[in-house]
Amino acid sequence: MTASDVSHIRNIGIISHIDAGKTTVTERILFYSGETHKMGEVHDGQAVMDWMPQEQERGITITASATSCRWGEHRINLIDTPGHIDFTIEVERSVRVLDGAVAIFSAVEGVQPQSELVWRQADRYRVPRVCLINKMDRLGADHEHVLRQMEQRLAARPVLLQLPVGTEGGFSGVIDVVEEEMIVFSETDLGRTVERKPVPLQHEEALRNARLAVTEAAADFDDQVMSDFLEGRAVESERLKLALRRGTISCRIFPVLLGSALRNKGVQPVLDAVCLFLPSPLDLPAMIGRHPGSGEAESFSCDANLPLRALAFKVMAEEGRRLTYVRIYSGRMKQGASVLNPGRGAGERIRHLFRMHAHRREEVPEAVAGDIVAVAGCQATLTGDTLCDPEHPLLLEGVAVPEPVVSVA
Ligand code: GDP
């Protein structure tokens, strides 16, 4: 895997209050990305619709701690972050492994206490987020209210990137404020791409105002956007996206999209936004580790050519086999390699490396810095332990995730 491939990795979690739609959104993500259904096999929309409930009965809900899926040229590693309040410690552990997150709110219930808690944890670890206001089809859906709650209760600066077309049961699409197009969602067309149309006349004024608001928010992160904004010039959408990306990665703004996951509306744009606005592992600044003997700190970047440093973030028993989920921060992890757990002074053997998908595990010969894989073969390693090159021991425990920097690439 090359550096440009790593720039296409997104290690993300989905955070929300219970019932906001995390399970439904996750299922749709795996579906649209072809993980639970090979795109193109089913041409008849109804067949696709029939397929979904069946799959749900069989329980496609992911059980893996990190499930990998593809979205265009990107690989998205979805890391399971338990949303239940009892699992706060687990959430914190997972958050350390995430580079970004999708935060889901219900358009009816809005910001709830638990969303507040998880949001603050994400703030603490400086995890950039894109937000989905879900359940736009429900009676009483009020995304404006949710935006105000985000400002007041989460002290966040949300940036609404879509306007709804239709309300409640009539919610049928959105106006994409950045691309200035209307996105029409059909409940039966479950493809990877969504239908885009010119913006109808009656939405033009609302679009103009919304675009002005988005430009104003983006102006803080790009001088060109700022001068265009101040002088009343139109801002090119690519420039706008770049500025929004900078703001999002620095956790100063939070792009907000609208949808109804249950009605198959609005999840594909969330995946596009994940790829567009959330950081890749290369966007993270140097990590810091500690030498086990001297205690001396060493900083290092996400580089496959450096010695191996990885963090075990979840240990699970699956089919009688112990699987250790690791996030690799530098170097390469190879099948058959011997690695060191410096915290326990234990040597470990990487017997098998797996990329976990919704329905299958894919054995891979090696994984590189930036990636997330499951390892079979570790005996002594527990959640939170470091695994590293035995020749270059370094401990990652207690590593704070520093503020991400923005790559312009
Ligand atoms: P989780 O607890 O966050 O994982 O939420 P679920 O995905 O299990 O959803 C909770 C409930 O809300 C379920 O009954 C879903 O069918 C329903 N639900 C999820 N998304 C939507 C939506 O967009 N619209 C409506 N009306 N219901 C939804």
TrEMBL record:
<feature type="domain" description="Tr-type G">
    <location>
        <begin position="7"/>
        <end position="282"/>
    </location>
</feature>
<keyword id="KW-0648">Protein biosynthesis</keyword>
<dbReference type="GO" id="GO:0003924">
    <property type="term" value="F:GTPase activity"/>
</dbReference>
<dbReference type="GO" id="GO:0005737">
    <property type="term" value="C:cytoplasm"/>
</dbReference>
<keyword id="KW-0251">Elongation factor</keyword>
<feature type="binding site">
    <location>
        <begin position="134"/>
        <end position="137"/>
    </location>
    <ligand>
        <name>GTP</name>
    </ligand>
</feature>
<keyword id="KW-0342">GTP-binding</keyword>
<comment type="similarity">
    <text>Belongs to the TRAFAC class translation factor GTPase superfamily. Classic translation factor GTPase family. EF-G/EF-2 subfamily.</text>
</comment>
<feature type="binding site">
    <location>
        <begin position="16"/>
        <end position="23"/>
    </location>
    <ligand>
        <name>GTP</name>
    </ligand>
</feature>
<dbReference type="GO" id="GO:0003746">
    <property type="term" value="F:translation elongation factor activity"/>
</dbReference>
<feature type="binding site">
    <location>
        <begin position="80"/>
        <end position="84"/>
    </location>
    <ligand>
        <name>GTP</name>
    </ligand>
</feature>
<protein>
    <recommendedName>
        <fullName>Elongation factor G</fullName>
    </recommendedName>
</protein>
<keyword id="KW-0963">Cytoplasm</keyword>
<dbReference type="GO" id="GO:0032790">
    <property type="term" value="P:ribosome disassembly"/>
</dbReference>
<comment type="function">
    <text>Catalyzes the GTP-dependent ribosomal translocation step during translation elongation. During this step, the ribosome changes from the pre-translocational (PRE) to the post-translocational (POST) state as the newly formed A-site-bound peptidyl-tRNA and P-site-bound deacylated tRNA move to the P and E sites, respectively. Catalyzes the coordinated movement of the two tRNA molecules, the mRNA and conformational changes in the ribosome.</text>
</comment>
<dbReference type="GO" id="GO:0005525">
    <property type="term" value="F:GTP binding"/>
</dbReference>
<keyword id="KW-0547">Nucleotide-binding</keyword>
